[in-house]
């Protein structure tokens, strides 16, 4: 079975500080992994995804994530937080088998950026 | 181009009534998904359509929930005899069918069951 765990339902950082949002997955085989962002009163938007190519994945808005098989992790980082990064972030996993493309989401992490 | 659209954006209904939620996927996307986002349960997968294959209904919480996808495009999620615990935001997404492709999400339908 596929699942993801996001440690920390709320994370607060100061503007300009490092952003680190944690995600660990549980899967019998390396899955596809995604980070989505949801801004207030908006739909989900893809930040980045890992699909067994490069382990360091760069996404939009300066975010990146590194797939670490040994740690079963896919943590999201950004070197310097902006006020506009305040949102809820969801890690998701999809099984790699052909035809099975539904996503299993973590519980989300709400990021607050303090001016 | 147009993204995924959903209607209505908000729906308030009384307990026991049936509701229909509509999703228009991105043109050319063969895969369509329904998810539910609620305070207590987070984001849950409900059902997945891929081309002409039988849908994956493994996420539907009860037999009161059903969905159809007509002509490989528009989808309708139907909830019969609604209960208060059905109150949530229902999200639709579509993608090119290949596993690992980005899913594009609609704005959702907020369902409130009184």
Report on the structure:
The complex is a heterodimer of chains A (115) and B (114). The mean pLDDT of chain A is 90. The radius of gyration of chain A is 14 Å and the shape is globular. In chain A, strands 2, 5, 6, 10, 11 and 12 form a six-stranded mixed beta sheet that branches. With 115 residues, chain A is mostly beta strands. Chain A starts with a strand and ends with a strand. Chain A has no helices and twelve strands. Chain A is 0% helix and 50% strand. Helix content of chain B is 0%, strand content 48%. Chain B has no helices and ten strands. Chain B has strands at 5-7, 10-13, 19-24, 31-38, 42-50, 65-69, 75-79, 88-95, 104-105, 109-113. Chain B starts with a strand and ends with a strand.
Helix content of chain B: under 10%
Averaging pLDDT over every residue of chain B, what do you get?
92
Measured between the Cα atoms of the first and last residue of chain A, the distance is 41 Å
Number of strands of chain B: 10
What's the average pLDDT of chain A? 90
What is the strand content of chain A?
over 45%
Indicate the structural class of chain B: mainly beta
- Provide the gyration radius of chain B in Å: 13 Å
Total number of beta strands of chain A: 12
For the record, give the distance between the C-alpha atoms at the N and C termini of chain B, rounded to a whole number: 37 Å
Estimated structural class of chain A:
mainly beta
The residue fraction in helices of chain A comes out at under 10%
For the largest beta-sheet of chain A, the strand count, sense and barrel status come to:
6 strands, mixed
Q: Give the C-alpha Rg of chain A.
A: 14 Å
Envelope shape of chain A: globular
In one word, what is the shape of chain B? Answer: globular
- SSE order of chain A, as H and E? EEEEEEEEEEEE
Continuous helix count of chain A = 0
